[in-house]
Specification:
heterodimer, A: 6-stranded mixed sheet, 5-stranded mixed sheet, 22% helix, disordered N terminus, B: alpha/beta, 13 helices, 8 strands, globular
Chain lengths: 240, 268
């Protein structure tokens, strides 16, 4: 999933985006530079199409007491065999400074990809998938109940009572009367919307922008409506 | 196959005990062996409404603590065959009830009775949740005003999640709505919520509408379950509700202005 943190103005020259990508990690198991050079060259000869020009991260987490000279030497060997070192990890302090001076980034310690890392990973909770079907609720949501659809949409096939709260990271659909509180886009998704057959809500919110029933005034309607965010203001529009 | 029915509401003063007495008497009148249990430990009322307050020897807490057995504590109603009352303790509080103790008493009652009516205390705390925990069906007593409706809604949410049936994932309990103290005149003036308003919010089956009536107060003071006062509007409304509870089809009466009803009752 990409999240935009750059300027939103029309004249913006760039934007910053977060993307997921797979990086190959070259984990050093021995400080022996000559062995590294020989074995790396042999590997590249085996699979030149795959390895030549491949961006890699040099992992020094398994090494003890690396000095700046060794780091420079290893980076030269890696570059010399046709790989492109884009960063190092498992370094700190002066060594990290040296890496930056050599034009490669410093990554925080990574998990996974090595045997030690894999063992740690099994102890973690399973990672939730990025996309979910959301949550479907067939019963009325009663006063005092709170229902949260994490990472997806919330669909309620009945009414939401006063004093009840429905929340979703995605959209909220209520196929009854919305009388309680509805908060969509809980993790800041401004594109999230709220749909309901009839709006009598105590509070509606999208991505943190909220409106109380008092402020909705005459916009409460008997018919189906959708609520969306436009320029930091909640818009309530009839669906028919 | 015996059934445990909880009479509950969340809010106090809406008519739970009156309804418990009326339902228990209504079921017994139809020949069912019925026990009615007062869960309102510390605020014992059911014995007064049932007119057996002078015959209380042992109570619910005594049975739970093993000071008395169930037969010693149950009071047999003098009017109706098969109707028994288990009174609450007036000198203790709700902490005297234990989940295990309640389960044991209800299991024992199941062996003898067709229906076990649990008169819940107000609120959503321990006492009320224990009264509801083992139920098979629930009658939610509601007055036609917003705070009572909201509290009933809250209670319905708890019934759907905090009862034994909900926790074990077995068949959900059957929920019934009983609207009490209903005044068609005041609904017309806009001072009260209408039947439709309440049904719209609570979205459960309507068991009956009991009109606001002098008969309820008079019957309570006399210690007679109001359902036995067969020539009163409230008594007939409760009788209809019991019939619907047992699966009979009955038209809803008492939804129009009171004068019309009295006129019909007393021939003009």
């Amino acid at each position: 999933m990409a999240s935009t943190v750059g300027s939103m103005e029309r004249s913006a020259a760039f934007e910053l985006k977060g993307r997921m990508a797979t990086l190959t990690v070259l984990r050093l198991l021995s400080p022996d530079s000559e062995a590294l050079s020989a074995q790396l060259d042999a590997k590249v000869v085996e699979a030149p199409a795959m390895l030549r020009g491949l961006p890699i991260v040099l992992d020094l987490g398994g090494m003890d007491e690396v000095d700046a000279g060794q780091l420079r030497r290893w980076l030269d060997i890696v570059r010399g065999s046709g790989l492109v070192p884009v960063g190092v990890c498992g370094v700190a302090g002066a060594l990290a400074e040296e890496a930056r001076a050599q034009g490669v980034g410093v990554f925080p310690d990574m998990v996974g990809g090595s045997r030690g890392g894999a063992r740690e990973r099994t102890e973690e909770k399973p990672v939730e998938p990025d996309t979910t079907l959301g949550r479907i609720v067939e019963q009325p949501v009663r006063s005092g109940q709170q229902i949260y659809a994490r990472g997806g949409d919330l669909v309620v096939l009945a009414s939401v009572s006063p004093g009840a709260e429905v929340l979703a990271d995605g959209n909220i659909h209520v196929y009854g009367t919305l009388r309680g509180r509805a908060l969509a886009g809980m993790r800041g998704q401004r594109e999230a919307r709220i749909f309901c057959r009839s709006l009598r809500a105590e509070l509606i919110s999208i991505a943190g922008q909220y409106q109380l029933s008092e402020q909705m005034g005459g916009s409460e309607s008997a018919g189906p409506v959708q609520i969306y965010l436009e320029d930091d203001a909640l818009c309530i529009a009839p669906l028919e | 196959m015996s059934k445990i029915v909880v009479i509950t509401s969340g809010k106090g003063g809406v008519g739970k005990t009156t309804t418990s007495a009326a339902f228990a008497a209504g079921l017994a009148k139809r020949g069912f062996k019925t026990a009615v249990v007062d869960f309102d430990v510390g605020l014992r009322n059911l014995d007064l409404i049932m007119g057996c307050e002078r015959r209380v020897v042992y109570d619910f807490v005594n049975v739970i603590n093993g000071d008395a057995n169930l037969n010693q504590a149950m009071i047999k109603d003098k009017r109706l065959e098969g109707l028994h009352i288990l009174p609450a303790s007036q000198t203790r509080d709700k902490d005297a009830l234990t989940q295990e103790g309640v389960e044991n008493v209800l299991d024992e009652l199941r062996e003898t009775f067709d229906y076990i009516i649990c008169d819940s205390p107000a609120g959503i705390e321990r006492g009320a949740m224990l009264a509801a925990y083992y139920c098979d069906e629930a009658i939610v007593v509601t007055n036609p005003e917003v705070s009572s409706v909201r509290d009933s809604d809250r209670m319905l949410g708890l019934l759907a999640s905090k009862t034994r049936r909900a926790e074990q994932g077995s068949e959900p309990i059957r929920e019934h709505l009983l609207l009490t103290r209903y005044s068609p005149q005041r609904v017309q003036k806009g001072e009260m919520l209408s039947v439709d308003d309440v049904r719209d919010i609570l979205a459960i089956e309507l068991l009956g509408v009991i009109p606001e009536s002098q008969a309820v107060l008079q019957a309570s003071n006399a210690g007679i379950p109001v359902v036995l006062e067969e020539n009163t509007d409230a008594g007939q409304a409760y009788d209809d509700a019991v019939a619907r509870f047992l699966g009979e089809e009955r038209e809803h009466r008492f939804l129009v202005e009171k004068r019309g009803i009295l006129g019909r009752l007393f021939g003009g």
